Amino acid sequence: MTNIIILIFVVGYLCITIENFTKVNKSAIALFMGIICWAIYMMGHPEQSAEDVFLPHVGDACETILFLMGAMAIVEIVDSNGGFNFVTRYLHTTNARILLWEIVGITFVLSTLLDNMTTSIVMVMVLKKLVADKSQRLLYASMIILAANSGGAFSPIGDVTTIMLWIEGCVSTTGIIGNLFLPSIASVMVPTAIISMKMKGEVETAETSESKPDKQVQLEQSFFPRATRLAIFLIGVGGLILVPLFRSVTGLPPFAGIMALLSILWIFTEVALRRNKRLLSLETKVRVSSILHKIDLSTILFFLGILFAVGALGETGTLAQVGKWLNRTFHGNAYAVNGIIGILSSIVDNVPLVASAMGMYSIEPDTTTGIMENFVQDGNFWNLLAYCAGTGGSMLIIGSAAGVIVMGLEQVNFVWYFRNISWLALLGYVAGIAVYWLQNASFTDIVTADTANMLFSELFPMIAAH
Hints:
Blueprint: H1 2-17, H2 19-22, H3 26-44, H4 50-80, H5 85-90, H6 96-113, H7 116-130, H8 134-153, H9 160-167, H10 173-198, H11 215-221, H12 226-250, H13 254-275, H14 283-286, H15 288-291, H16 297-315, H17 318-330, H18 334-344, H19 350-360, H20 380-392, H21 401-410, H22 414-420, H23 422-440, H24 443-448, H25 451-459, H26 461-465
């Protein structure tokens, strides 16, 4: 049964990657793959009940889906009410190269405070207002993925995996920021610098591409007074930043904070609408109940299918076996094990990978010496696990939540991303690992030893042994 599930998983992913040739929507493939994997698993294990095995995975998946739906709704409300005009006015440059660095910089900073999915949604909405040309926008959108994943890797609240490691005490707030800030910077700066060299001239903005804007569109973009639109922006984006605080104070999962924020924003816009008689004729267009229809349900269903499929694969024990194989093969070498985990995270969801790694090792006391020193709090293993799992997903468009979101919102083709962005993401990924090694290697090691051989033996211990 396990082999059949693995085969379906591989074939399903292959069909998703060649969507451009099959013309079958990736969401349909993902849903079919997820449900069939679970159906086969349950038929192969009749002694287990769906209530005990399947429903817990449904609960975990729905937590993510509800968070995603709420975040998309909030961003859509802010955007529909002209809230992001405040951001686009700040990004007033039309120089393609400068705009790239500004977009990457803002995304990187935002992703340290917001969830990567939320950051990607916000920045893609902003990007649509800044760049009209589809081919140009694809490059910017791809760099949003890399910047969001890199920014979330060094923040204890920036990514699901870092939150897991932070809550379990594997890393501390100051430890993960201090150890991973420079590697995260390197992982996004390297590909950005390469892409920026290819960008020349000016970008055509969405505003300049419309020679005669429709008056009704102009009206709908400015139906609320400036003060009200600013308030909607501050409630929406400011509230998203405070979701981690809501979680720590109440103990409720993040999606509960998102839903609370959505309800507050909904009530505020309803009250603002009732107080402005001029907007009564546009009520059906400006109410949240109408704006909610703009949410991309296809992307949500795609994400649900992927989570189901990965859950079934994890239940078979395949992911745990991979983790044990890595441990046996590389003898707990922090660089080798986590380097491969990062590559795997571009194919399989990084949450079960990190969970498996956390299950294999325990947090060692600070007095530990030798190779086990890597497993103390803020040790090399935990830091590299956070970095590699967080940034490794950028190597494939379906390897991270940010990638899946951008894929749905901008219709980025898997093959196009693989040809144009994957190799850049790999260069950034390796650059970050190299920076981490350099900042943790002692000065005498760097000066007196053969640095290249040391790094090679750290990354490839089996080859170096021969």
